[in-house]
Amino acid sequence: MEPITLLTGKAAVLDRANVDTDQIIPKQFLKRIERSGFGQFLFYNWRFDETGREREDFELNRPEYEGASILIAGENFGCGSSREHAPWSLLDYGFKVVIAPSFADIFHQNCLKNGILPITLSHSDIQSLVRQTEIQNQVTVNLPEQTVIGESGRPAAFDIHPYWKEMLINGWDEISITLRYDSEIQAFEEASAI
Amino acid sequence: MGRSIIEKIWEAHQVVQEENKPDLLYIDLHYIHEVTSPQAFEGLRHNGRKVRRPDRTFATMDHNVPTYNRYFIQDEIARNQLDALAANCREFGIQLADLNSQDQGIVHVIGPELGLTKPGMTIVCGDSHTSTHGAFGALAFGIGTSEVEHVLATQTLWQTKPKTLKLEVRGSLGEGVTAKDVILYIISKYGVTFGTGHVIEYCGEVISAMSMEERMTVCNMSIEGGARAGLVSPDETTFSYLRGRKCVPAGSEFEAEVRRWQSFASDPDAEYDKKLVIDGSEIPPMVSWGTNPGMSSGVDAKIPVYEETASPEEEKALRGALEYMGLNEGLEIQSIPVQHVFIGSCTNSRLEDLRAAAGWVKGRKVKDGVRALVVPGSQNVKRLAEEEQLHEIFLEAGFEWRDSGCSMCLSMNPDVVPAGEHCASTSNRNFEGRQGTGARTHLVSPVMAAAAAVYGRFVDIRKEEYSRNAEKVSS
Ligand code: SF4
């Protein structure tokens, strides 16, 4: 996984609540057996019309959002299924950070495991960030400092579990860490006669 | 102070507990299926890792299997996924219920049916409706593919301890009101995020009186209320369901297991982070009219009007949902036309569900122009239903009778609802496009779905004329 420390990039705003995983990546694209190449299907039914042409009225299709690496989303983002194709498609499309007032649990977890930083900010912090992006669309996310800041304005602080912070900053693979606890796992299995 | 079942299971599975870290939790049982596992196996191979406990891993094919002519899979990519699962299970020594197996079916139907799911266990699966297994007093939750790979390699997961929510359903349910209505009512009342960060323990007279199949329906949809897991403390109903099942020990070993299982039940003085109480008598038969399960109302109600929404955000959500659904504000739910009916999915495809629907359908006909499908949750359910001749009732009435699988719950196989058409569905999600691009899903109970097939619209099954007939045919 690629480490995340300091990231400055364009932010795209998707102001919709309860965006579910069926919207993030519709099920017809879940049949691949690879991890890569899902970005082209991100928000497919919103991004493209029946003929496969880009829909002008969909937020992410705005020219000024091209190349965005930070997604500012609405309440309960990522609700629905456990499909990891959702973070895969976001990542493959280019998003490394998702900022929202709240996330669905499994999706939140899946982001962390794939090197996407999910940031929970209050409604007012998000609003002020969105206002700033309208003037100049540059947002800086500082993971070591745990702050988000636009071109102007005050930095907004966010919380992250120290465990995940360390993992993301180092780009560590969780399995190799867990395998260091092999003797503990074995002892547990023996003690509980599993 | 007493402990809840959630804390008891958690504490019994902690392998590592260190400051500033989630706990490393041991996983007793890992279910896998074809859609969320291929990339996990790919990861194992890539790093030269093995499956730590193939004996604690069980696989099935369900999400994209055809339910008609099942060995003829036209979709090449779907076939690749099924082939990949079979090859991975062979390579890593994992037991698989494939299309030839009489045990094949939806993962959340066959696990309980075979007696693999047991009280006190930690259970995971790369599928959000893993919460279903909570009905047995297991801590069961959905995970993503990275976690699938992690469990395959280590049989553990790093997890932060969830908060606990006690949800008590008091009293009793009215005539014609089912477990599905209970959970839809709960989500419509408290919203699609009330359970976020929590594990829900369902209790109270209504839950105690429920069969295991009904409890599974309730726990199944915990995730639609935002909770990763929902469970019910094990009791006599749980134990008698498990007795004699294929993967459950018999004789004195069974009695010893029951005593161990009992010890997981919540203590009467257990404390919870949050408590909610509802009265069973306030619950009507429910119908969803919007694009998330919280957008549901009693069948005798009307779709909300914009003017009465609580906030501009809510109004925006309501407008968006009604536009997608092609419905008007204030419309009577009973006047929504239905062109498709789907009885199936891990929420409502078990024998009792099929009995309830068949009991109502017997002697009636599916309305002209309505396409109605019954998809049993497993091949075992299918066989048992056929032994009771339920399939004949359905076929006679004009339903299609299929092989088991997820089918129209997410329409990854050929069972799809065309754009713009309405489907009364016993599944669990009415998200945009879930049953097909532009498809309009209405979540209901099996008997409500059966009635919708006959009338081509939603009807209040509590109304005397309907329920009296229903009694007549089932007696
Ligand atoms: S029936 Fe539907 S909800 Fe259940 S496992 Fe299959 S796709 Fe998921």
Give structural notes.
The complex is a heterodimer of chains A (194) and B (475). Chain A is of the alpha/beta class. Chain A has one domain: Aconitase, domain 4, CATH 3.20.19. Helices cover 33% and strands 15% of the residues of chain A. Chain A is built from 8 helices and 8 strands; from the N terminus they run ββααβαβαβαβββααα. In chain A, the strands form 2 sheets. Chain A has a 4-stranded antiparallel β-sheet, covered by helices on one side. In chain A, strand 3, helix 3 and strand 4 form a beta-alpha-beta unit. The two termini of chain A are 33 Å apart. By secondary structure, chain B is α/β, with parallel strands linked by helices. Chain B folds into 2 domains: 271 residues, Aconitase, domain 3 (2-Layer Sandwich); 182 residues, Aconitase, domain 3. Chain B contains 16 helices and 19 strands. In chain B, the strands form 5 sheets. Chain B has a 5-stranded parallel β-sheet with strand order 5-4-3-6-7. The longest helix of chain B has 17 residues. Chain B is globular, with a radius of gyration of 22 Å. The model of chain B has no long low-confidence stretch (mean pLDDT 95). Classes of the chains: A alpha/beta (194), B alpha/beta (475). The complex binds iron/sulfur cluster (SF4). The site of iron/sulfur cluster has 13 residues of chain B, from loops.
The percent range for helix content of chain A is 25-40%
The class by helix and strand makeup of chain A works out as alpha/beta
For CATH, the homologous superfamily of the largest domain in chain B is named as Aconitase, domain 3
Overall pLDDT of chain B:
95
The major beta sheet of chain A can be summarized as: 4 strands, antiparallel
CATH domain fold name of chain A: Aconitase, domain 4
Estimate what percentage of residues of chain A fall within beta strands.
Answer: 5-15%
The unreliable regions of chain A are none
Described by strand count, sense and barrel closure, the largest sheet of chain B is: 5 strands, parallel
Output the radius of gyration of chain B.
22 Å
- Please tell me how large the radius of gyration of chain A is: 18 Å
Low-confidence stretches of chain B: none
Query: How many helical elements of chain A?
Result: 8
Distance between the termini of chain A: 33 Å
Helix content of chain B: 25-40%
How does CATH name the architecture of the largest domain in chain B?
2-Layer Sandwich
Let me know the CATH homologous superfamily of chain A: Aconitase, domain 4
Overall number of structural domains of chain B: 2
- CATH classification class of the largest domain in chain B: Alpha Beta
Strand order of the largest sheet of chain A: 1-6-7-8
